[in-house]
Amino acid sequence: MRTFLHAGLLLTALIAPAAAEAATLSFQVRGPGGQPLPGAVVTVEVAGGAAAPVRGPYVMEQRDIQFQPHVLIVPVGASVSFPNRDRVRHHVYSFSRPKRLDLPLYGRDETHSVTFDQPGVVALGCNIHDAMSAFVFVTATPFVAQSGADGRVTLAQVPAGSATVRVWHPSIRARGNSMAQAFTVTAADLASTLTVR
Amino acid sequence: MRLQGFGRLRTRLLVLYAGLFAAALISLAAVAQTIIRQNAEEMVRAELAANGSVYDRLWALRTRSLKTSAAMLARDFGFRDAVASADEPTIRSALTNVRKRAGATEAFMVDMDGGASGTPGALADAVAAVPFALENGRSDAVVCVEGAAYRLVLSPIMAPMQIGWVVFAVKLDGAEMDMLERLSAIPLRATIVQRTAAGWRAADDHEIGGEEIDRLIEQSTHRRAMATLNLSSGRAFATAKPLAGVGPEPVAAILIRYPLIDALAPYRSLQIGIALAGLIGLLLVVLASRRLAQSIARPIAALDAAARALEEGTHSRVEVEGRDEIGRLAASFNRMADGIQDRENRISHLAFHDTLTGLPNRAYFRQALDQAIASGERNRHQVAVLCLDLDRFKDVNDTLGHPVGDALLQQLGRRLTGLSPDGMVARLGGDEFAIILSGQVDVDRPRALAQAIMDAMRQPLDADQHQIAGDVSIGIAVAPNDGSDADALMKSADLALYRAKQDGRGVFRFFEPELDAAARRRRQVELDLRDAIRLGHFELHYQPVLDLKNNRVGALEALLRWRHPERGLVLPSDFIGIAEDSGLIIAIGEWVLHEACREARRWPAHVRVAVNVSPLQFRNSGFPAIVMQALAASGLPPERLEIEITESVFLEGEEAVVALLHRLRSMGIRIALDDFGTGYSSLSYLRGFPFDKIKIDRSFVTDVARDAGSAAIVRAIVHLAKALGMDITAEGVEDAAQLSRLRGEGCDNIQGYLFSRPVSSSEVDALIGTRMEDAA
Question: Could you tell me the superkingdom of the organism this chain comes from (chain A) (predicted)?
Fold first, then answer.
């Protein structure tokens, strides 16, 4: 049964004239009820686009028995450190296909570093604290952003050409918690609404 | 037919009380039964409701337990690792492991793509779809696969995002229900029913099904409902727990039943107890009623019996118990019975005692004698009876009056009682007394007593201020020799008394067999007399009375002769006494009158016929009529009939006799006074009635020629008669000296052998023709 995996990405485009060969794309992500969906990661993959540069440092702290940040967007090949700021020990793991990791019990101010060399969403959990959850969003494209409180995302300098816009959010009931929509980036800026299911 | 026992008060009371109580008991038992049943049903409902809740909790507990197990697996790091890495063998082994531990029938892992790991099959296929079809928030459901119901419990596998579900499937079969049943406090039956096209059915219990159950489950979807099922195994209360399928609609339900028979089982002992208590109560009431009925009925029965005894003449009293109505009734009854007894005693005293002397009367005496004889027979004792008769008592009555006579009898009674303390003195009637000597009496005692009485009687009795010398005659008879029963003994004693009187009064005589023989002879004579009257064995002989003045036969005295067929000619002296005693004298006298008149009719007119009339005959009220008939039948003129009476006729009262004589005289009949000069001769008779003729007794005539005294008396009588204008006849003239003397004294008529003996009627005619001179 894959019914909810067929969910389509409703793309309402408002094409505006932009600079040649590049455009600024702005999206508003809305949930199934039409409300703005904050925290959603929107990526635009452009055919033949350059890989995202690794800058660093990428840190996924464990503080107050929480991962910090909840979603960490890193480029492929980035090395992420997992410093423990809590007094308790944590056991961070991930069974996600892009990066399986298992950082056995480590204590305060102990840091593990993990290199994410495959694109994809790596769901992090702590084997001790079930409530701890975080995602490392490993992206190959540099055009990536997370929606703010108003659900808005703005991507600049996106080269024209055929592209795929992809929305990821843990609440999306679809395979990989993401929905994708192919579209063409023109020189004109684009403002669009992405409604997920 | 009426039951005899029911006629008794006691039985009726018993039946009434016991019946009422039994009815009350039965009503109570019925009410109790109803209450018990209602109570049981209410209790069953309450228990069923409570147990329904318990079942819900058990169900929830089981669900939680399964969920916990499922969650534990879902959270296991290794399992999650295996699931995340799609390590199928590891997943399967982990599922198998935890399934056994959790007690689930099957365990599956369903991944986010809808693939199910675990034992493949229809169940696995069904399970794979469940997580996606299940409503939000639900983590369990019931599915029916291939006719079996399964409870599914889901637990998500989080890593930390959901990567699949652990699904436990528990088959809802008999074993699972048994577990539930065991956990219940009351004997419930739990059955799984499934929704089918035809309604709700149990897979393994064909009894279950029908509208009742459909309705029950439908109602139970919204709230707890209860119903009474009429199953083939009996009535049962039931409640149902619908089990939701994947959707909100139930696809199966747990039917919880409580058979009424089980519900009522705890009351069985109560019911038995009530029945037992009722029976014991009934028994007690029967016993108590019996006692009460007896206490009421017994005195009444006693009264009944006493009244019946009283009715039969037995004196009876009732024991008086208590002071209630029955007690008062008994007391009244006793007073009544005493009163009756008193009156009876008085009456029987009157019946058995002589009022004058207070002595036992003849009836009492008879009874006492019977008893004495019977007792004497048994004990070989003698019983003596003394019969007493006061001599000449009649004279006392006649001369001194009845009050004196009564006083005399009283005195005599007292004297006799005083003399015989060992005997019973009774007054049999008149001047007749009798004494019974019985028991251990000396052989000489009767004689001694008789002698003592004789001696005592020498002292005159003091009767009403008169000193009266009363001689008694006593006849004694002794049983068993003189008579074996009261009648015979009395007869013997009477005969002895008769003999004593014959022997000159004032003596006592023992009975002797000869007396009895004499009595028997008298009886035979009496019988023969009757025959004689009937067969005409009597004849009249005639003795002439010579008229000295006319020197011819002036009259003929008719004299009765009995020509007995065996004994020949019998003289009157041998049978007149018996004829008088037996009353036959009336009939004989009548015959004599008729015959004499008939004969006299053919005689010459100057010849009269003289007929002797006994006092008994004379006193007979029909006598004048007999005389009239005799005269009328013969045609004899009345003046030719001469009735001869003796002075003894006057003993019964002068006036009536005189009146009768006058009556006869007025008819023309002549009256002669016979045997004058003997007996109670009283000159007053001569003054009281003018006889036509006086006959001088032969005792004076016999000595008239030799004895101057006799001659003087004859002379005086003749003078007296002539002075009174009466004729004189001298009887018994046997020789010429007597005749000449009598003639000298002035006597008119003579009668005797000198002239003629009595002759038969055939010789009369010749006799009338003869003269005195011829005869002499």
Answer: Bacteria
